[in-house]
């Protein structure tokens, strides 16, 4: 099992969500996050200068079985890409174990319903 964390532009969230659902990734968590980037410039909006070094992004957290890692990465990467600086990052982290609280299922079995497996 792997945990995939992706930091993406807020404007690309709906595209990434749709791409994950199309790739049969039906469950994930997401959080609004802020980060600090290299760019240090001020933007002027209605006469007020705003610091753009604080970047608002979405952090998506997904736990997947090993067989679904590459299709998940491709779905996020293709949907989040604009080709410009600041498209984001994807991190892949090993997951040692997972337990479904309701049934006690462990490992891969805790991530999907066996009766729905085709």
Descriptive account of the structure:
The protein is an alpha+beta fold. The protein has a single domain, classed as Alpha-Beta Plaits. It is 19% helix and 36% strand. It has 2 helices and 6 strands, in the order βαββββαβ. The protein has helices at residues 13-22, 69-80, and strands at 2-9, 29-36, 42-45, 48-51, 54-64, 88-94. The longest helix is centred in the middle third of the chain and has 12 residues, at 69-80. It is elongated. The model has no long low-confidence stretch (mean pLDDT 88).
Give me the secondary-structure topology.
Blueprint: E1 2-9, H1 13-22, E2 29-36, E3 42-45, E4 48-51, E5 54-64, H2 69-80, E6 88-94
Antiparallel strand pairs: 1-5, 1-6, 2-5, 3-4
Helix pairs in contact: 1-2
């Amino acid at each position: 099992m792997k945990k995939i964390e992706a930091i993406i532009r807020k404007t690309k969230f709906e595209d990434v969500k749709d791409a994950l659902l199309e790739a049969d990734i039906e469950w994930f968590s997401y959080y609004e996050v802020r980060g600090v980037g290299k760019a240090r410039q001020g933007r002027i909006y209605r006469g007020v200068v705003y610091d753009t070094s604080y970047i608002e992004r979405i952090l998506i957290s997904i736990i997947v079985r090993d067989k679904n890692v590459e299709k998940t990465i491709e779905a996020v990467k293709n949907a989040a890409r604009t080709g410009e600086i600041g498209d984001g990052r994807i991190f892949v982290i090993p997951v040692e174990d997972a337990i479904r609280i309701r049934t006690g299922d462990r490992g891969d079995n805790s991530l999907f319903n066996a009766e729905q497996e085709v």
